[in-house]
Specification:
27 strands; six-stranded mixed beta sheet; 19 helices; alpha+beta; 17% strand
């Protein structure tokens, strides 16, 4: 059994063997420490053993020395034949000394062997865990007969693959939109087709665990750093991702990732997974009994091209034909920020206790347009370029494999400087005025395409929690439970991390899906709240938002460099660390912030006290004398119209100086 901080869960044999290996490792550690201490205690006084000097009057050493000294024979202690006795005693001392060193050497060798055994056991534990994570689980009688996954984005497709690897059959994916082009299509060389997403350790880890990373990585560009043009500055600030994160960020177009995962399903899981596009989920009904299946209704759709629709715009679909009704034993809601599954659960009168949807008003509303960029010669291709203008226009650009980049321009919804730039020449003038550093990246066709594009809105913050499931047959994940603005890479990576935790929970409770989903809610429901609240705090408007965003980052960077063992990296870096949850990162950063503010406040108090003491000795006496002279001067000129006011001011000043002097 393992205590994971929240549950006592029954473990599978492989995990149990891994835990036994950990227990044996712990015992080996204790034994090794004891043997090391014993060898140190037996070592002669005033000698250094393994780099540590042992004091001759240490109690343990003194006690062991008394024991070894008691080995003297009574004959040697009574007789008084100095030459013979002293010679024999010297021989016995040399013998005991040699015996002692021999024992110390044996203990050192035994301690080293125990440490070697500990390393072997640790390797066994790592291999067991790795096998346990990557093994394809066979079919089980408890697996649902029919599984419906709503949404064929990266989260929905990856979830279907994970369930198929667990041995589940009859998994059907549904989506309201038509399928994307194949991954080898020429459209993916066109930056107008889809925006880029960056995958950190959490996203890459999930794709590796489901065996899809090799196929995905072949379509990714690598980003090893960031180049930021700050407001009012001509020299960019460079950030090294390898130094900060320890690994590169992998970048791929969002719709290309869905195409790659779709091909992964067709190649490996076609007998277990079916994909139905142009099917929009319109309603869900749950039965009265916990074991009843879910009844779903779908409406077939068809894409239409609207008049004036620009290339790269979100497809428009209309309903066609009659509704289709199905039943499913298990439903996964991975249908994004506008989740129909979540909305149906919210309207359900018998929803799980604790299920709620919290929506935030967008206090910092922005819209965006994408623009095609080409990296000029001499510029780095494998970095993320960004710029923030003082006029509240932002651009961020991530690379593609073909040397091009996709730039996302963010602005306010009613910013006429951008919305009224309807020709390529007007867009070019816009860039020359507010984003001149990006003009070498854009050609004339790029300006014209940007002018023709329609602005797109970012989603508002919302979360579902702390319960994100219904009984044993429905669960939500991805943007359906934590919707954030895609500024810091939180969206795709947290969605893929949800899938990893769903897999872990199903493994921990192989005989009860209800317990597995309950565990998933307790872990990821709380995490969803933290993800959205952290993102919302970093997206405040105006000066308050700038201080709330930059203040903690600057403090974290300074203190982490001074005391890296005490203070963690800034929140944006720390949240990307593998194995660190947003809830844990938030709690630790709050602790760090309290310690930082306390330290800064202490320095301010100390500095002001020192400065005040210095001023009191050098300046306050002359200031006090001057204020008394001025007050006396104005008191003898009552005929001056300003005399009463000036006399009152100088009197108050004199009182303040006198009070400060008295307090010192």
């Amino acid at each position: 059994r393992r205590d994971d901080g929240q549950h006592h869960t029954r473990m599978k044999p492989a995990v149990a063997r891994s835990s036994v290996a950990r227990l044996m490792t712990c015992c080996c550690s204790i034994s090794a420490l004891f043997l090391t201490a014993a060898s140190a205690a037996l070592a002669p006084a005033h000698t250094a053993h393994d780099g540590l000097a042992f004091a001759p009057r240490a109690p343990l050493v003194r006690g062991l020395q008394r024991v070894t000294a008691s080995a003297r024979t009574p004959l040697l202690s009574r007789r008084a034949s100095p030459p013979a006795v002293l010679g024999l005693r010297a021989s016995m001392r040399d013998y005991r000394k040699g015996l002692l060193h021999d024992k110390v050497g044996r203990l050192e060798k035994l301690s080293q062997q125990v440490f070697n055994l500990q390393d072997i056991l640790l390797q066994i534990a790592v291999v067991e865990e790795d096998i346990e994570q990557r093994v394809v689980v066979g079919p089980s009688e408890l697996n649902p007969k029919q599984t419906a996954v709503i949404g064929t984005g990266p989260a929905g497709l990856a979830t279907a693959i994970m369930l198929a690897r667990r041995g589940w059959d009859n998994i059907v994916l549904y989506d309201r939109l038509p399928p994307p082009p194949r991954s080898d299509s020429s459209e993916w060389g066109d930056p107008e087709r889809s925006y880029n997403i960056g995958m950190d350790a959490k996203g890459q880890g999930l794709l590796k665990s489901i065996g899809a990373w090799e196929r995905v990585e072949s379509h990714c560009a690598e980003v090893v750093g960031r180049v930021d043009y700050m407001p009012g500055g001509d020299t960019p600030v460079e950030v090294d991702f390898i130094e900060k994160f320890g690994y590169p960020i992998k970048v791929i177009q969002r719709d290309c990732l869905t195409a790659v995962l779709r091909e992964e399903i067709e190649a490996k899981y076609a007998d277990k997974i079916a994909m139905l596009y142009n099917h929009e989920c319109s309603s869900l009904l749950w039965g009265a009994q916990p074991g009843d299946p879910v009844r779903l209704q779908f409406q077939q759709t068809q894409r239409i091209v609207q008049e004036g629709e620009v290339r790269g715009a979100r497809p428009t679909v209309v309903p066609v034909g009659e509704p289709i009704r199905i039943v499913a034993d298990f439903v996964v809601g991975a249908d994004g920020a506008s989740s129909r599954v979540r909305d149906a659960m919210e309207c359900d009168t018998e929803a799980e206790e604790g299920f709620q949807v919290v929506r935030y008003a967008d206090a910092n509303e922005r819209v965006f347009k994408t623009i095609s960029l080409t990296v000029p010669e001499g510029q780095r291709v494998n970095v993320d370029y960004s710029a923030v203008s003082l006029e509240d226009i932002i651009i961020d650009a991530l690379p593609l494999q073909n040397g091009k980049m996709i730039g996302v321009v963010l602005f306010r919804p009613h910013d006429t400087r951008v919305t009224e730039a309807i020709t390529g020449q007007q867009v070019k003038e816009l860039f020359s005025t507010y984003l001149p550093m990006f003009m070498p990246f854009v050609d004339e066709d790029g300006y014209a395409a940007f002018a023709a594009k329609r602005e797109q809105r970012l989603p508002a913050f919302q979360y579902c929690g702390p319960v994100v499931h219904r009984r044993h047959n429905t669960v939500l994940l991805g943007d359906a439970i934590h919707t954030v603005k895609p500024f810091f890479g939180f969206g795709i990576n947290t969605a893929l991390d949800d899938i990893k935790w769903l897999d872990n929970c199903l493994t921990s409770h192989p005989s009860s899906r209800a317990d597995a989903l309950r565990m998933f809610s307790e872990i990821r429901g709380t995490e969803a709240v933290s993800i959205v609240e952290i993102s919302q705090e970093l997206d405040q408007p105006g000066l308050k938002g700038l201080l709330a965003f930059l203040g903690p980052l600057l403090l974290d960077n300074v203190f982490n460099k001074i005391m890296p063992g005490v203070f963690h990296p800034n929140l944006l870096i720390y949240c990307r660390s593998e194995g660190v949850s947003f809830t844990e990162a938030r709690q630790r950063k709050k602790r760090d912030l309290n310690m930082q503010l306390s330290f800064v406040a202490a320095q301010i108090v100390w500095g002001s006290s020192a400065a005040t003491l210095y001023m009191s000795q050098r300046t306050m006496v002359p200031m006090l004398a001057f204020s008394e002279k001025v007050s006396a001067f104005w008191s003898v000129l009552p005929f001056h119209p300003s005399a009463p006011a000036l006399h009152a001011i100088t009197s108050m000043y004199t009182w303040a100086v006198t009070t400060t002097w008295s307090s010192l």
